[in-house]
Amino acid sequence: MDTQDLKNMIVLAAHEHITNASYELHMTPSALSKLLSRVEQELHGVQLFQRVSNRLSITDAGRDFVEYARGIVAEYDRMSAAMHQYAHKSNNNIHIGTYHFLLGLDLAQVLVSFTHAQPQITIETVASSSKNLISMLDKGEVEIAFILDHNMQLDFERYKVYTLPSVDDTFCFVTYHDHPLSARKFVTLEEIGNEPIIMMDKSTADYEIIMGHLNRHGVSLNIVQYTDRHEVAFDFVAFERGGTLYSEKMLAMYSYKMSNIVMIPLEPKILRKSKMIVSRKALKREAVKTFVDYISVECRAEEISELS
Question: Which CATH number is 94-167+273-304's, of 3.40.190.10, 3.40.1620.10, 1.20.1730.10, 3.30.70.60?
Answer without folding.
Answer: 3.40.190.10
